[in-house]
Amino acid sequence: GPAVGVVAFQGAWREHRNTLESLGASVRLLRRPEDLEGVSGVVLPGGESTVIGRFLEQSGLAPALRASLEERTALLATCAGAILACREVEGSPPQGRLGLVPARAVRNAYGGQRESFEADLPWEGGDSLRGIFIRAPRFEDLGEGTRVLARHRGEPVAFLWNRCLLCAFHPELGEDLRVHRRFLDLCPS
Ligand code: GLN
């Protein structure tokens, strides 16, 4: 399978690694700009966006990642990762934001930890998948070239833009492999 990198500072990077390995990808952990060499896809996991953003900045990975995403690399960004990928974040913008994807993220828009929930989401117009939402962001003002893959109560919770797949929920915590499979299909060979 393709060589994919998982940003491994904080958050659910282990779960992403395990899911991707179960699909036959060869997984590299990303902590420094050099780690990006030869990688065709990158996962930016959920966790705490301010913490991950600070690490991205301090490590020098933020500009390196931005450059490689603009060039050819695919991206799967979940929850906090998706917040960091968006061009705009409501409120104070976290440090280390990649700011590539034309959309605005509203942090914690569905409430705090205790308002975590699961929901059945029709995936790309087909069978539902179970979405796990933990302090999830809302996506607003999706820009040109975006395509919604899943909605919850009419609001987009997963969408595609170029080779970037952004997801408000946590596919790495569920059993359904379709989100990761979709990401691997975006990785150039
Ligand atoms: N609300 C968190 C943040 O803003 C994201 C939560 C998550 O990734 N599960 O970083």
TrEMBL record:
L-glutamine binds at G47, E48, S49, R107, I134, R135. The active site is at C79, H170, E172. GO terms for cellular component: cytosol; glutaminase complex. Keywords: Glutamine amidotransferase, Hydrolase, Lyase. It comes from the Bacteria. InterPro entries: Class_I_gatase-like, PdxT/SNO, PdxT/SNO_CS. One of its GO terms (biological process) is pyridoxine metabolic process. PROSITE patterns: PDXT_SNO_1, PDXT_SNO_2. GO terms for molecular function: glutaminase activity; lyase activity. It catalyses: L-glutamine + H2O = L-glutamate + NH4(+). Its EC number is 3.5.1.2. NCBIfam families: PLP_synth_Pdx2 (TIGR03800). Belongs to the glutaminase PdxT/SNO family. This is glutaminase.
